[in-house]
């Protein structure tokens, strides 16, 4: 069983030994978060996105009237998205857990066993990592396209492929026990995902 090496605790504090979260539990937590996010986006999709798609090419689009008629649903869907995002960020900052991680009984810790807080879990591990992946993939796509003299569409396709490749790399890293199953996200934020101890 993989355990996280912890530093000696200060006098009077209890040392809790934790096990590294399995690849399966981390994948399950991710998929649960995807399901929750899709469910939260359903009202937004039907109240705003669908009317926009249906009337996008019309000379006198009626989608504004339809969106206005759906006013309460629009407001409710936006409020639901805001509450969901705020709740996820609050849980990650306070406990190192998203909804999916909470259900799977795993959490994010710094490599020294401390709580990474808002900066470590939300800003570094989630937001900054995704920004870096997007920008790096886009730049690499355009550089490769310049070399092979491709079109902007080709650059976008290459960038998307590189972005997906990085996520595949992270998936493979989940199975590396010798590195405590740390992904690129974990390395950026100096974190590790662990099982919650039984109470």
From TrEMBL:
Q: Where do transmembrane segments lie in this chain?
A: 30-53, 73-93, 127-145, 157-175
Lyase: is it a keyword of this entry? no
Q: Tell me the membrane topology, using the record's own terms.
A: Multi-pass membrane protein
For whether the record's keyword set contains Transmembrane, the answer is yes
Q: What compartments host this protein?
A: Cell membrane
Keywords of the record, alphabetical order, are: Cell membrane, Membrane, Transmembrane, Transmembrane helix
Boundaries of every RDD domain copy? 21-189
Q: Which cellular component appears as one GO term in the record?
A: plasma membrane
UniProt superkingdom: Bacteria
- Any signal peptide, and if so, which residues? none
Which Pfam family, giving just one, matches this sequence? RDD
This chain belongs to the protein called: RDD domain-containing protein
């Amino acid at each position: 069983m993989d355990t996280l090496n912890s530093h000696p605790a200060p006098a009077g504090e209890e040392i809790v030994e934790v096990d590294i979260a399995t690849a399966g539990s981390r994948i399950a937590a991710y998929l649960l978060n995807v399901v929750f996010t899709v469910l939260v986006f359903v009202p937004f999709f039907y109240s705003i996105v669908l009317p926009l798609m249906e009337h996008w090419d019309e000379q006198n689009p009626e989608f504004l009237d339809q969106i206005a008629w759906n006013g309460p649903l629009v407001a409710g869907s936006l409020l639901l998205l805001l509450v969901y995002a705020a709740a996820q960020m609050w849980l990650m900052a306070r406990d190192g857990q998203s909804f999916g991680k909470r259900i799977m009984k795993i959490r994010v810790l710094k490599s020294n066993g401390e709580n990474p807080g808002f900066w470590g879990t939300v800003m570094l591990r989630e937001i900054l990592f995704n920004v870096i992946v997007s920008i790096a993939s886009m730049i690499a796509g355009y550089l490769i396209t310049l070399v092979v003299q491709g079109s902007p569409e080709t650059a976008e396709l290459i960038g998307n492929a590189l972005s997906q490749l990085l996520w595949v790399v992270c998936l493979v890293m989940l199975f590396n026990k010798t590195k405590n199953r740390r992904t690129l996200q974990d390395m950026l934020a100096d974190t590790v995902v662990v099982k919650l101890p039984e109470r």
